[in-house]
Amino acid sequence: MDRKPSFCCLALLSTAMVSCSGPVRGTQPASESYMPVPGAVAFDIKSLPSKEGYEWLATYSAQGKTARFRIELGKAQGARDEESKTFDIKSGTGRFVAQPGSDASALLNELKIALEAKSLPGRVRRVNALPFTFVTFGSNQSQAPDGGFFSKPPGNWTPMKIFIGNGDQEGQVFINLNPVLGKGQFSIKDSDYGDIVLRQLASVL
After folding, report:
1. Mean pLDDT of the region 102-120
2. Pairing of strands 77-78, 65-73
């Protein structure tokens, strides 16, 4: 499977899930708050210093277990074709970075449900970092009750689609970030990717 997303296809297929090229920095709207939605798992994020791009420490705590991982995003670049300009489509690369002392068992259980995976991964080879490609659409998004994102009213969400893995083990999942709220969110793209994405994330979370 080609690691480079087709921007024209992504624009047409992603009109309900829009995002921006980098984390929104601004004032939190009075009405903006995190809304739990089906098919998604929320976690906390804290901004970290970064020489290039953006970086956060992510944590998820439940059942006495705390998962810790770092999210790094490089600067997004826009394509030159008219389709990409119309939808403000940009792409870049990033990675999840493993953190010492992380216990992701509770998080993986929640992700299994949200991503509609059939089973939890068995033995997984741990990695220090898991690279991915991301694609973004639009800017200044607010969260809708059904889990989508919209530009009116504006908000501080950055929804994006990421591609992780290679070949027949490549999966897609949405990851949505709101540094103002201090919240992040994994959100299902397609149940067909559930087991692949869960197995990839289990290697680094």
Report:
1. 96
2. unpaired
**Which of 164, 176, 173 lies closest to 203, judged by CA?**
164
Q: Per the structure block, which two tokens stand in for 167?
A: 């070949």
Give the DSSP H or E segment for 49.
Answer: none
Q: Which residues pair with 162 in a beta bridge?
A: 134, 173
Give the span between the Cα atoms of 147 and 35, in whole angstroms: 8
Tokens encoding 198: 């869960």
User: Do 153 and 27 form a contact (C-beta atoms < 8 A)?
Assistant: no
- Position 23 scores a pLDDT of 41
40-47 and 54-62 strand pairing: antiparallel
Q: Is the pLDDT of residue 30 over 60?
A: no
Q: What is the mean pLDDT of the chain?
A: 83
Q: Are 19 and 138 in contact (CB under 8 A)?
A: yes
Do residues 133 and 5 make contact, with C-beta atoms less than 8 angstroms apart?
A: yes
Q: Model confidence over 52-81: pLDDT tens digits?
A: 889 999 999 999 999 999 999 998 777 666
What are the b/e assignments for 6-45, b being 16+ CB within 10 Å? ebeebbeebeebbbbbbbbeeeeeeebeeeebebbbbbeb
Band of pLDDT at residue 5, cut at 50, 70 and 90: very low
- 169 by Cβ neighbours in 10 Å (0-12 / 13-18 / 19+) ranks as exposed
State which amino acid sits at residue 161. K
